[in-house]
Every structure is written in structure tokens, then in C-alpha cells.
């Protein structure tokens, strides 16, 4: 194995193996999730994916595999990936004092949502929370570890994500706080008990009535969606306001935030609103 020097770049490692043109196309960044590297490779370089993967493994000797990511799609937000070097796709990622176990080939973990996960970790002390799209515990785990709510009801429909959610609850020793529930939040969301409801899914608009109904008077809704640039933040505010009005509830927007750029001209946004 070649030892990498601090000043060595991926391009240095591949000089002689790729043409000058190919070197220019190399990715400038990648995600490290636990001991797995996740990289997106431009289509014109895909025929070189294995040599790039091997170089990345040499770059990070502690990592065990490199996954090439093509897209994230479907209602479960599943990644479409291919192992291009090394082996093994299950890992435990450490972030903000929390541990997240997941299979990186089947479960997404967005680096762009880091600030939002940190923000959530500071909220909810002594409250009852409903996390309607809990995944592997992206928001529930940091909240439970750092803010110690009274209870978090964490609902997840994907059986694999639910399995990791249950494992992560144990790994982080928050069994006394988080109650994982397997199923569709349209059916499983409780009514009238929550101080806070988290709707961390891009299809959340279809479930707004359930999120609002979960809240006690004065409870807070964290509503996520992907919004075209021109409609930031008017569309999400309109959607939550009309959903609340239809249920005869009043609503006060507290805060609007861009979480990350989702695609060209489209933002992932979150709106916090108090519902009465
Ligand atoms: C992937 S997470 C969103 C990402 C997360 N906010 C983060 O910080 O990375 C969304 C989760 O909602 C789940 N989900 C989708 N529809 C659902 C439903 N109707 N009920 C419960 N969970 C659902 C998906 O399976 C997925 O695990």
C-alpha cells in the first residue's frame, strides 16, 4: 500500500494512471460516512471508477470501501450506489456526540443536513416530540442525546431504516426517551399530544394534517420541503397555513431556513411554525 503524504492529492495519486484530461474531471470532494467513502463520479470518468476507488482507499487507509453514488430516489429516499473499491457497506458514523449505524448502500445520510441535525439537537428539552419521518434517527437521536425530551415517538415506514433506528436507540442509550414505531405516519401519528412535530421528508406536504393534528395548542411544527427558488418561502408558508386553517387551527410562522441547495434552482427549506 502506498503511504499518502499530507500534501498528496487524489490527482497526484492518479497521475500516470489517468490522462491529463481525465485528471481534470476528478471529483473535488466526497463524503466520509464512518469508514466508508461515498463519491460521485462524472459519467465521462465512469470507465475509470475502479482505479479512482482504489486511489481513494489509499488516501484514507482507515476506510474499508468506496461507493459510487448515482442518485437518491423513491419514497424511502434510497441511494443508488455501486461498490467500486474495497468491501462492506455497513458502518457506524459518529457526529455531534451521536452514533448512527446504517448500511450506506441502502440508507441515505445527507451531509448537507448537518446544521439542521445540530439545530434539532438543541430543542425539545422535557417535551413530547413526534418525529414523523424518523429514518435511522437523524433528528430523534441528537435530540434525545443532547436535549433529553420527555419522550420522542419516532415513526419510520421503511423496514430497514426502522431496524437501524431501533439499533441506534440502543447504541446511543436513549431507550428511555425514544419509542420507535414501524409504519406509515399517516396511520401511526398520535393526535393532540405533541409539543413538537418534525416533518423531515420531501413528501411532507401530503401529511400536513397529521403533523398539525399531532400538536397540542402552542406546539411547534418543523415542516420540510423542496421549493423552487422563486417560491422560497412563500409556498411552504402557504401550504402549512391552509392546512392549519382547514383544521380550524391558527398558525404563527416562527422561523424559515434554507437547509441546503437541493438541485439547480431548488432549495431544501424548513419552516418552524407554532400552531394554536
Ligand atoms: C431519509 S429521511 C429524510 C432525511 C433526514 N431528514 C436527514 O437529516 O438526513 C426520510 C424518511 O422518511 C421515511 N418515510 C417516507 N414516507 C413515510 C411515511 N409515510 N411514514 C413514515 N416514514 C416515512 C423514509 O423511509 C425515510 O427514512
Strand order of the largest sheet: 9-8-7-10-11-13-12
Principal-axes geometry comes out as globular
Helicity range of the residues?
25-40%
* Strand-pairing-aware structural class: alpha/beta
Q: In the CATH classification, which architecture of the largest domain applies?
A: 3-Layer(aba) Sandwich
Gyration radius, rounded = 21 Å
Query: How many structural domains are formed by the residues?
Result: 2
Structural commentary:
The protein folds into 2 domains: 10-88, GMP Synthetase, Chain A, domain 3, CATH 3.30.300; 109-275, Rossmann fold (3-Layer(aba) Sandwich). Strands 9-8-7-10-11-13-12 form a 7-stranded mixed beta sheet. A 4-stranded mixed beta sheet has the order 1-2-3-4. It is α/β, with parallel strands linked by helices. Strand 3 (65-73) and strand 4 form a beta hairpin. It has 9 helices and 13 strands. The model is unreliable at 1-6 (pLDDT under 50). The longest helix has 13 residues, at 159-171. The protein is 27% helix and 34% strand. It has helices at residues 10-14, 20-25, 49-59, 114-121, 140-147, 159-171, 185-188, 208-214, 234-246; strands spanning 31-33, 36-39, 65-73, 78-86, 90-95, 98-103, 128-131, 151-156, 178-182, 194-199, 215-228, 251-263, 266-275. Helix 4 packs parallel to helix 5.
Amino acid at each position: 500500500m502506498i503511504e499518502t503524504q499530507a500534501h498528496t492529492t487524489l490527482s497526484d495519486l492518479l497521475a500516470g494512471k489517468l490522462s491529463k484530461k481525465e485528471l481534470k474531471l476528478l471529483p473535488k470532494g466526497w463524503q466520509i460516512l464512518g469508514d466508508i467513502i461515498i463519491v460521485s463520479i462524472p459519467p465521462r470518468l465512469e470507465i475509470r471508477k475502479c482505479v479512482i476507488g482504489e486511489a481513494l482507499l489509499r488516501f484514507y487507509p482507515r476506510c474499508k470501501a468506496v461507493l459510487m453514488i448515482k442518485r437518491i430516489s423513491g419514497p424511502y429516499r434510497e441511494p443508488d450506489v455501486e461498490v467500486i473499491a474495497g468491501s462492506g457497506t455497513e458502518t457506524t458514523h459518529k457526529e455531534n456526540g451521536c452514533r448512527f449505524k446504517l448500511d450506506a448502500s441502502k440508507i441515505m445520510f445527507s451531509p448537507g443536513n448537518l446544521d439542521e441535525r445540530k439545530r434539532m439537537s438543541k430543542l425539545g428539552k422535557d417535551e413530547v416530540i413526534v418525529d414523523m419521518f424518523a429514518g435511522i434517527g437523524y433528528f430523534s437521536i441528537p435530540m434525545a442525546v443532547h436535549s433529553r425530551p420527555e419522550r420522542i415517538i419516532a415513526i419510520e415506514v421503511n423496514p430497514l431504516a426502522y431496524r437501524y433506528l431501533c439499533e441506534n436507540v440502543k447504541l446511543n442509550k436513549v431507550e428511555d426517551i425514544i419509542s420507535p414505531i414501524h409504519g406509515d405516519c399517516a396511520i401511526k401519528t398520535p393526535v393532540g399530544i405533541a409539543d413538537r412535530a418534525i416533518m423531515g421528508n420531501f413528501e411532507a406536504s401530503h401529511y400536513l394534517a397529521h403533523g398539525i393534528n399531532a400538536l397540542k395548542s402552542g406546539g411547534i411544527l418543523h415542516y420540510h420541503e423542496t421549493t423552487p427558488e422563486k417560491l422560497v418561502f412563500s409556498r411552504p408558508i402557504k401550504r402549512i397555513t391552509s392546512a392549519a386553517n382547514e383544521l380550524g387551527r391558527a398558525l404563527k410562522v416562527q422561523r424559515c431556513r434554507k437547509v441546503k441547495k437541493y438541485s439547480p434552482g431548488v432549495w431544501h427549506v424548513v419552516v418552524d411554525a407554532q400552531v394554536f
